[in-house]
């Protein structure tokens, strides 16, 4: 999940692409996360400095490639990777405790099909991934920026979607999920108007949760409170 807050305030964090869709959350790694990071980052970590990667070289094989933007504490990504060992997964997360937590999951489960970026997803998209290299991009529960004056900071915007489109192969899937109805409506509006994408469901319809997307503790809690969850699956058509 990409929901991130900053205990020091919610002033925007800027990058070369302008206002980011998140603010860095303050927090330290636990001892276990820190040790996992120290042990496993050299093997599983990817950096901006490596430049444009060849996924086949990174993973040592030619396999379906999944990209999750904002994996939170990493459990869902680890669940997906464990359930589909024949596929490869790249996770992006700026929150270092989350990176450490995912690396610990990778160690504990003996996963070999996961790699991790600990930088802004915009840099991964622009500088690190070749065009038409990814089979599925997943953005689960991004920060909704629910105040109207903050809506412009939402990650899912027309320009972002088009940049994602170029990284997907034709036929690849962009999978979005949110538990904020207003954001779901915003996502549907953006995706429906986006060139080169078609809804996998009927026009304007949300998708049932695919089996490959794990139900998070966060999501289960929301369901108990009566909150809805909306999934959108759009296919790149050209």
TrEMBL record:
Q: Which PROSITE patterns match?
A: SAM_MT_TRMB
InterPro entries membership: SAM-dependent_MTases_sf (IPR029063), tRNA_(Gua-N-7)_MeTrfase_Trmb (IPR003358), tRNA_methyltr_TrmB_bact (IPR055361)
UniProt EC number? 2.1.1.33
Matching Pfam families: Methyltransf_4
| Class of enzymatic activity (EC top level) | transferase
Tell me the superkingdom of the source. Answer: Bacteria
Residue ranges for the region (Interaction with RNA) are 149-154
* Keyword Ion transport annotated: no
Q: Where does S-adenosyl-L-methionine bind?
A: 68, 93, 120, 143
Q: Key word Acyltransferase present in the record?
A: no
Keywords in alphabetical order, please. Answer: Methyltransferase, S-adenosyl-L-methionine, Transferase, tRNA processing
* GO MF annotations, alphabetized: tRNA (guanine(46)-N7)-methyltransferase activity
Reactions this protein catalyses: guanosine(46) in tRNA + S-adenosyl-L-methionine = N(7)-methylguanosine(46) in tRNA + S-adenosyl-L-homocysteine
So, what pathway does this thing act in? tRNA modification; N(7)-methylguanine-tRNA biosynthesis
Binding-site residues for substrate, renumbered to this chain: 147, 179, 216-219
What GO cellular-component annotations does this UniProt entry give? tRNA methyltransferase complex
Q: What does this protein do?
A: Catalyzes the formation of N(7)-methylguanine at position 46 (m7G46) in tRNA.
Q: Which family does it belong to?
A: Belongs to the class I-like SAM-binding methyltransferase superfamily. TrmB family.
Q: What is this protein called?
A: tRNA (guanine-N(7)-)-methyltransferase
The organism of origin for this protein: Marinobacter profundi
């Amino acid at each position: 999940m990409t929901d991130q807050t900053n205990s020091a305030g919610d002033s925007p964090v800027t990058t070369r692409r302008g206002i980011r869709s998140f603010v860095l959350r303050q927090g330290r790694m636990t001892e276990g996360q820190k040790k996992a990071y120290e042990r496993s980052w050299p093997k599983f970590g990817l950096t901006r400095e490596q430049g444009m990667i060849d996924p086949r070289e990174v993973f040592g094989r030619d396999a379906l490639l999944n990209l999750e933007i904002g994996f939170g504490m990493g459990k869902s990504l680890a669940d997906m990777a464990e359930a589909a060992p024949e596929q490869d997964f790249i996770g992006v997360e700026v929150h270092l405790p989350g990176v450490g937590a995912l690396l610990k999951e990778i160690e504990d489960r003996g996963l070999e099909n996961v790699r991790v970026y600990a930088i802004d997803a915009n840099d991964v998209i622009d500088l690190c991934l070749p065009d038409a290299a990814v089979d599925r991009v997943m953005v689960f529960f991004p920060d909704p920026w629910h105040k109207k004056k903050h809506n412009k900071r939402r990650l899912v915007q027309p320009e972002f979607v088009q940049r994602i489109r170029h990284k997907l192969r034709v036929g690849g899937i962009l999978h979005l999920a949110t538990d904020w109805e207003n954001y779901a409506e915003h996502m549907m509006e953006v995706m429906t108007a986006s060139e080169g994408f078609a809804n996998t469901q009927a026009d304007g319809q949300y998708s049932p949760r695919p089996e490959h997307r794990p139900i998070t503790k966060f999501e289960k809690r929301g369901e108990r409170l009566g909150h809805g969850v909306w999934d959108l699956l759009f296919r790149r058509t050209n």
